[in-house]
């Protein structure tokens, strides 16, 4: 619902995919290592995820 509400208020078509792409690009531009960007977006190595549980 948040995206639908935002779309109605702004009249912009912004999908979650677009925001993920923008976020990854901005983080890379700021010098954040790829592994952290992946973790922020929920993509972690299976072996790392198993050690966290």
Report on this model:
With 53 residues, the protein is mainly α. The protein has one domain (2-52). It is built from 4 helices and no strands. The model has no long low-confidence stretch (mean pLDDT 83).
What shape does the CA trace take? elongated
Strand content: under 5%
Query: What is the number of strand segments?
Result: 0
Secondary structure category: mainly alpha
> Which range best describes the helical content: under 10%, 10-25%, 25-40%, 40-55%, 55-70% or over 70%?
55-70%
Figure out the total of helices.
4
Query: Can you tell me the number of structural domains?
Result: 1
**Distance between the first and last residues' Cα:** 31 Å
C-alpha-based Rg, rounded? 15 Å
Strand and helix order: HHHH
User: How is the main sheet built?
Assistant: none
Low-pLDDT residue intervals, each spanning 5 or more residues: none
What do the pLDDT scores average to?
Answer: 83
Summarize this entry quickly.
The chain is mostly helical. The chain has helices spanning 2-10, 16-29, 34-40, 46-52. The longest helix has 14 residues, at 16-29.
Descriptive terms for the model:
53 residues; mainly alpha; 4 helices
What is the strand and helix layout of this fold?
Layout: H1 2-10, H2 16-29, H3 34-40, H4 46-52
